[in-house]
Amino acid sequence: MDNLKTIEGKVKSVLQKNVDARDDDMVLYLALCNLYLKDAGTMPLAEIMTRHKELGLPSFESVGRTRRKLQERHPELLGNVRRQRIRAAGEKAYRKYAKES
């Protein structure tokens, strides 16, 4: 639980400072990796993704869930309106897909 609270604090900090990270989970994850690990941006993606636990990085999915939770509680951290509409449409399409499966 403490680890999740640490992730939440760091994700919130990135979202407050980096407007692009509000709209793109990949940008958010890279910024977060750079907070946890110096020079993470210079490491091969495969190394980060396969060794994230060993490197002390949070999982990509945890970061995305944390972003959604924070944006729900703090509307000022939402991305631009166009991106919000795209996400809403994607969520609607996914729900339809999930019900059909």
- Measured as a percent range, the helix fraction is over 70%
Total separate domains: 1
Report the mean per-residue pLDDT as an integer.
89
The sequence of SSEs as H and E is HHHHHHH
Structural class: mainly alpha
Kindly report how far apart the N and C termini lie: 33 Å
Number of helices: 7
Radius of gyration: 15 Å
Tell me the β content.
under 5%
Record field, number of beta strands: 0
Major sheet attributes: none
Would you identify the regions where 5 or more consecutive residues have pLDDT less than 50? none
Fold and architecture overview:
Helix content is 76%, strand content 0%. The chain has one domain. The mean pLDDT is 89. It starts with a helix and ends with a helix. It is mostly helical and 101 residues long. The chain is built from seven helices and no strands. The radius of gyration is 15 Å and the shape is globular.
